[in-house]
Amino acid sequence: MSLIPGNNAPAFTLPATGGKNLSLDSLKGRKVVLYFYPKDDTSGCTLEAKDFQALRNDFEAADTDIIGVSPDPMKSHDKFRTKYDLEFPLVSDEAKTMLEAYGVWVEKSMWGRRYMGVERTTVLIDRDGRIARVWNKVKVQGHAEEVLEAAKAL
Predict the structure, then answer these.
(1) What is this structure's pTM?
(2) C-alpha 17: how far from chain center
(3) Annotated catalytic residue 132
(4) Exposure of 44 by Cβ count < 10 A (0-12 exposed, 13-18 middle, 19+ buried)?
(5) Rounded mean pLDDT of 16-22?
(6) Per-residue CA distances from 65 to 75, 94, 101, 105 (Å)
């Protein structure tokens, strides 16, 4: 499925850090950044999380919530969040239902080997739960700043 700006963002309810479930419905009325990443505590994913964390107050000022999503289990998310003092929730989608709904669970290849994994993608959702912007195949460097500018403009 491709994410089209203006369409409703796919609904979800999944476990999140902090011991709660998080749903898209519970975030209505605020802007939301969903950033999908492959794996906790790997170099690119750590850098991306730290970049979003560094700008968390600016996102908050722009009335925008940040949520990280990966297929890692909650135990891994809790450890990752604590290790890097992340103040935004990480959502676990071990069943990959949300990842598939957002079209980010894709076939990848590395060194000639094909496997399924998360394509690093960010989705900005408006206050009404509609997709405002999508960044596919994200390059981490400077990405959080670009997403912040888009959130401010929304």
Answers:
(1) 0.94
(2) 13
(3) no
(4) middle
(5) 92
(6) 22, 22, 20, 23
